[in-house]
Write a structure and sequence with these properties.
Elements lengths: L3 E10 L4 E10 L2 E7 L7 E4 L1 E6 L8 H8 L4 E6 L2 H7 L1 H12 L4 E6 L17 H8 L4 E7 L2 H6 L2 H12 L4 E3 L6 H9 L4 E2 L5 H9 L3 E5 L7 H4 L10 E4 L5 H6 L2 H10 L4 H16 L14 E4 L7 E6 L2 E5 L2 E2 L31 E6 L6 E6 L3 E2 L2 E2 L7 E7 L9 E6 L7 E4 L8 E5 L2 H14 L2 E5 L4 E5 L11 H17 L7 H7 L8 E4 L2 E4 L4 E3 L7
Parallel strand pairs: 1-4, 5-6, 6-7, 7-8, 8-9, 10-11, 11-12, 17-22
Antiparallel strand pairs: 1-2, 2-3, 4-13, 13-14, 14-15, 15-16, 17-18, 19-20, 21-22, 21-24, 23-24, 23-25, 25-26, 27-28, 28-29
């Protein structure tokens, strides 16, 4: 269906750094003309926003429902890494994401996951080989090689890693990076391999270093991992090298805002309006070669209408000339889908999470709020009859991971500090990167109950207290719901509120929990195979016993 209409307002010309009254003329889904006017209404016309790196799965929504929330905030496109569902369902999962997104009109640009499984130190549900990646590149729906998390393999010249990068070069696809903390000669070597972006910078010095190597930096602000404050002053130094991304964003956060929030914050800090909008609208489109309009004649009619250039809340969002959001209401129709999954875990017995006490201090995972990284603590821990117990007075709780892909596998149990729970347990089948079941709690009984809720639904998020049990089912790969986005956001909000009422002071307890299994981010994490030291890439014992 083609469209023809005109919109008047203050045209924000990002390329020429100018704002003037104009009329945008749309015909056949494209920008036919932009005409200057003597005057126009006090509303602002500019290109739509692009999220430069996001895992749609982290919204707990299938792409079609993600789109219905994203367009409310002026987002018209995402650079989407289907890494999460690929770890669970392989090629079938990637195709599910592409096909579900196609039915919306929203501009999803999916990549070929480069690290499935992410490491050999965890059990994933599938693998993506170089042959699979080549098959994906031969299809028109795959636009880049997604984040190369195996930076040690890049630096070591690992043959399999290099084969994947070479395939991207062969097919003219950009290669995304993921190299937290990498600087100096190592960062230069990583970039020289052909890797062009990074969204994992923790400090401005790290950002500067990678920019000097020719990389673009995506300033990330997700539900748990937040680097905006640390990196935003790069806007004064190297605006042409910056983009904005959310990476992982839960549905309650997405309901409240998206890339527009980062734009508003940057402008409020006094950053140049046009530099900020270039990062939000133009640089990702240019870098990845996306078919997204930039409000120039002949472009696809992808644009937004804003009331002001302060809060950047859209009045309207257009994609390919179609009105997809109007005054806070999404106009993208709901899409039906058949869930896919990979889930074989069986209910746990009452002794599943026993942890034998040994002499000496225990290694403890120290959670850092709003960060993916953790620290390693050592402390004496509470024990009874030879078994380690959670100690809520010291905020030392048990944490466990259960293999979801094999029946009756032995869970791995460790200790964690920073969740703050004083009662009950929370659990999730969203546990980056392999998405086994992860659970943290104050008693074994509560942890088993929370994990068994997940198992009985073959995926979801759960919270168990003395008073109630809550579950948000995630039937699509144990990662996403195909239900209405607003309904899922409300259910998630209730779970988040419950976790905080249980004592957690974390910004996003469930998102943080999911990252406790993310082995590629230091310092210490846990997988279904054991406690893992991300600095030396090897398993360690809770009680310093060699494994």
């Amino acid at each position: 269906m083609t469209t023809a209409f005109n919109v008047r307002g203050q045209f924000v010309d990002i390329q020429k750094k100018d704002i003037y009254p104009a009329e945008i003329q749309v015909s056949k889904n494209k920008i036919k003309a932009i005409k200057r006017l003597p005057q126009a209404p006090e509303q602002y016309l500019l290109p739509g926003f692009t999220d430069a790196h996001v895992h749609i799965e982290s919204s707990l929504l299938v792409p079609s429902e993600f789109a219905r929330l994203a367009v409310l905030h002026g987002t018209v496109a995402t650079v989407s890494d289907p890494h999460e569902i690929a770890n669970v369902c392989g090629m079938e999962g990637i195709k599910f994401m592409v096909n579900n997104g196609k039915d919306t009109g929203f501009k999803f640009f999916f990549g070929a996951p480069s690290c499935v499984p992410a490491t050999p130190f965890e059990t994933a549900g599938a693998s993506i080989s170089p042959d699979d990646i080549e098959q994906l590149f031969q299809e028109t729906d795959i636009h880049y090689l997604a984040e190369m998390m195996n930076w040690p393999g890049v630096l070591a010249g690992d043959a399999l890693v290099q084969e994947k990068i070479d395939l991207a070069k062969k097919y003219g696809k950009p290669v995304d990076g993921h190299a937290p903390g990498l600087k100096g000669e190592n960062a230069a070597k990583y970039a020289a391999a052909g890797i062009t972006t990074d969204h994992e910078c923790f400090t401005i010095e790290e950002g500067r270093d990678k920019i000097s190597c020719g990389m673009k930096i995506a300033i990330r602000e997700g539900s748990a991992a937040r680097n905006f404050d640390a990196l935003i002053d790069l806007m004064d130094e190297s605006p042409e090298h910056l983009m904005f991304c959310s990476d992982d964003k839960h549905p309650d956060s997405l309901l409240n805002g998206h890339i527009n929030q980062l734009v508003a914050r940057a402008v409020a800090l006094g950053k140049d309006l046009f530099d900020v909008l270039r990062a939000a609208c133009i640089t990702p489109v240019a870098h990845y070669g996306l078919d997204v309009g930039l409000l120039q004649e002949g472009d696809p009619a992808d644009f937004i209408v804003l009331k002001n250039l302060v809060d950047f809340i859209p009045k309207q969002t257009y994609i390919n000339g179609h009105l997809v959001a109007d005054k806070g209401i999404p106009l993208i129709p709901k899409v039906s889908c058949n869930p896919i999954n990979h889930f074989n875990a069986q209910p746990l017995s009452k002794d599943a999470f026993l942890l034998q006490h040994e002499t000496g201090p225990a290694k403890i995972i120290q959670v850092l709020d709003r960060q993916l990284i953790t620290k390693t603590l050592e402390a004496e821990v509470l024990a009874k009859e030879g078994q380690v117990k959670a100690d809520t007075s010291e905020d030392i709780l048990k944490i466990a991971v259960v293999n979801r892909y094999a029946a009756n596998s032995k869970p791995q149990v460790a200790l964690v500090k920073g969740f703050g729970l004083r009662d009950g347990a929370i659990a999730s089948s969203v546990a980056h990167d392999s998405h086994n079941i992860i659970v943290v709690g104050c008693t074994d009984e509560a942890m088993i109950k929370a994990a068994n809720l997940i198992i009985s639904h073959q995926g979801g998020l759960s919270a168990v207290t003395a008073q109630k049990d809550l579950i948000l089912p995630l039937p699509v790969a144990g990662l996403m719901s195909h239900k209405d986005a607003f309904e899922v956001a409300e259910q998630y909000t209730q779970l988040d509120k419950t976790a905080k009422n249980m004592g957690s002071n974390l910004q996003s307890p469930f998102m943080t929990l999911s990252f406790m299994a993310l082995l590629v981010i230091p310092q210490i994490k846990i997988s279904d195979q054991g406690l893992f030291d991300g600095d030396v890439f090897q398993f360690v014992s809770v009680f310093d016993k060699k494994q």
